[in-house]
Amino acid sequence: MAYNLLKGKKGIITGALDANSIAWKVAEKAHEEGATFVLTNAPIAMRMGEIKVLAEKTKSEIVPADATNVDELTNLFMASQEILGGKIDFVLHSIGMSVNIRKNVPYTSLNYDYFMKGIDVSAMSFHKMLAVAKKLDAINEWGSVVALTYMAAQRTYPFYTDMADIKAMLESIARINTVSQSPTKTTAGTGIKGFGDFYDFANSVAPLGNATAEDCANYCITLFSDLTRMVTMQNLFHDGGYSSTGVSMEVLTKLGVEPGV
Ligand code: NAI
To answer: For a disulfide at 90, which of 11, 146, 170, 249, Cβ 3.0-4.6 Å?
Structure first.
């Protein structure tokens, strides 16, 4: 059900690679809620991805941009304002990639060139986007910018390696809102070793179970809307209660503890 929450709003949505991407769901919901927006992704991802299907479905245009490249980001913000006919009301940063994770490099022997690449793509890109937007004065007053993150920024997880440090950096950039999402079955998510076990564990711990990509999209839409305009500089957990749970009965039962004993 749509509520017209984003009627008349203009946005930029990064990171829609395929129908599993969180950004894909955000674009679908933003369209349903009356927004117009530009879709963007790295040129290489667009050759592999299905973004054109999404653009047709949401009546949006695509402007390619590598989020590590300031010139391409400048073009993105300039072209988006031209296409949408004015300043931008909302931006979704939904970009994550670690070469160390892709290549299964353990945390204790990280490759630092890969680490730098991961920082640039997944954290510094957020600063670059915001700096470009500021320079061009491209964001409307009361505009909303949201980046997606993961709780590994605060707590340790095996196999999340340098991405944990990178997410911590992302969350400290600009101190706008970040949404810390449950494990989600996407290309970036399932690339992490042991992801299926992370996913099942979080699902067993969270009182409401894992939040889906669609739930995450709904939350992002509220953050882009006027209803939450005084929410800023927050890291917002969107995880079915996982971050506030010590241990659940479900996990204890799996460990052999009998209820009520
Ligand atoms: P995804 O793989 O669908 O999206 C990642 C996107 O980053 C892709 O569209 C990819 O093309 C884009 N990207 C990579 N390098 C880029 C570059 N240089 N320039 C522009 N775009 C680039 O996966 P997902 O899960 O939707 O990821 C979106 C965000 O959500 C990421 O920040 C991720 O860390 C975060 N997140 C994901 C969770 C999960 O379990 N899937 C959990 C918590 C947060």
So the answer is: 11
